[in-house]
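Many introductory courses stop at the sequence. We go one step further.
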Amino acid sequence: MRTKELALITGVLCALPAVVDAQNQRPLRVLVASAPAGPADVQARLLVPKMSEALARTLIVDNRASNNGVFATEICAKAAPDGSTVCVGNSGTHAVNATLYQKLPYDVLRDFRAVSQFSTTGMVVAANAKLPGATLQDLVAYAKKNPGKTNIAIPGATGQLAGDALWSRLQIEMNNVNYKGSAPSEIAVVSGESQISLLTPLASMNHIASGRMKAYGITSAQRHPLLPNVPTIAEQGVQGYDFQFWTGLFAPKKISERTLRELHKAVVIALQTPEVRDRYTQLGLVVVANSPEEFAQVVKTDVEKFRKAILESGITRL
């Protein structure tokens, strides 16, 4: 081989690590499918500093709020699979929407790789403080006296499905009003623009403590440790009712296995940090930190669970 050719090849090979390093130094965009201050946003912002340390890379949270999180989720599905874009998804964006929408611009199972689940929690049937009574039966009595006059602030698809399934079981008529995430839904209920929403304990507990909201029940099978006096929906007579809201990280489908594992490791490191874990617990969130394979199975199972719930309850598909 000629000396000039050898020098050229050697130069290219020496430059490759620099190219890889440059790619790794690009900011990593973390799409959040809701407005700032919502449950998914809060969780992401708690994790981002620790993930940034683990990856030795800058992470930027990018809020792209829309009804049921479709917009941000579509951006993530169609992003280049080069490790520069990931998204925070939840049981609504990546399980409920698969059936709630008759035609999505992405496929929740085919177009993503599950990285790791952050957390899970039940949802509170949270109401404006001026609504009467304190039990689910009180809410039913009010709704039947005022058919079609109760607005439900919809923060996302999980809340919509959990609510629609509940109203169907209770045989009461409610009006769904879509908002772009949890924070706008909270404001709507507190102000009286809407009367009720299904919110996580994280989103509702301060409003409940201050008296600006009341809680008619919680959607999980067990009472929540931060709201021990709030009974479950099931123990108030709706047998078998159990809806949980989970949150986790997703990447475009064709991301490399190496990058996927690096992201997973960073999420687990962040969630296992004592201050992050303690803060999650304080916010009423159960930390999960499962593997990509385990999280993918959660998504697949819930797609089928919510599909059955939607079709059996006769919920109107979008």
